[in-house]
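User: quick one - fold this with nickel (II) ion bound?
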Amino acid sequence: MAAGLSHGAGVKIPLPQKVDVAAALDTFTAHWTPHVLADLNGQQVKVAKLLGRFEWHSHAAEDELFWVLSGSLEMHFRDGMVTLEAGQMLVVPRGVEHMPVAHEEVQVVLFEPAGAVNTGENPDGPLTVRELKRLS
Ligand code: NI
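Assistant: Sure. Structure tokens for the protein plus nickel (II) ion:
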């Protein structure tokens, strides 16, 4: 019998494939360039490398999760700043202006709805990435 998982009445689906997040991060060097690792429920899990200052922006319709894997990430808000260390995460609520700053390279997992644009309501800036590469 072929490998697979039971999925309903006699239906088999392929065994889900694991994703090695560190290996995925090793496949690219560009900063501020999210890469898609997985899709689920209309959301996407992405990884990115951050270095320097991003730009002030907000996302009108999307909450945005940042989960720091390595490094120290400053998330600036108009009224304050939160520093995330490795192993820490934060959800930026929709509509809230924010600007990530990484003084040294930071590796993050992002989780947000598919189609969310990294620069929010400034969709044509120099930091905007429209076509996301997929790593799995
Ligand atoms: Ni954002």
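One thing worth noting: The domain at 18-134 is CATH 2.60.120.10 (Jelly Rolls).
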